[in-house]
Amino acid sequence: MFIADGKGGRQRLIPISARFFAWLAAYLQTERPADAATDRVFVVLKGPRRGMPLSPAGLDQILDSARQRAGLSQVTCHQLRHTCLTRLREAGMALEAVQAQAGHASIESTRIYLHLADDWLASQYRKAAEAIDAQLLPGEPPSRILSIVDGAGR
Asked: Do 111 and 121 fall into the same domain?
């Protein structure tokens, strides 16, 4: 998807899943008023502004209603952005790719954004430790490695 005027006035291309386009097609066919007064995709669906472009305040109202229905105390669009980026990283996306997806100029900004779960961090450590062990002592059984580490494997 091409973003013509993103955060900081930057343009960028972002990948979108096929599932999004299926949901978008359903929205366009069943929800979006055919006589909308704009070429914007997302419009107000109810009330006197029906068919007008959806504003940031309108999106906040939709999110607040969903938050209340879900029984959550607080949810913001910005928190959803943090969650999305965190989930991408936890799913294995390289940090530099997450940075590009977020549109951050600095990778440090991306690191601040991520709220990685302790179990994900532990699994990353285990994976790295296994890879290092395999490089240092390829083909050695774990018991032999332990004896070498303990100094008994002379």
From this structure: no
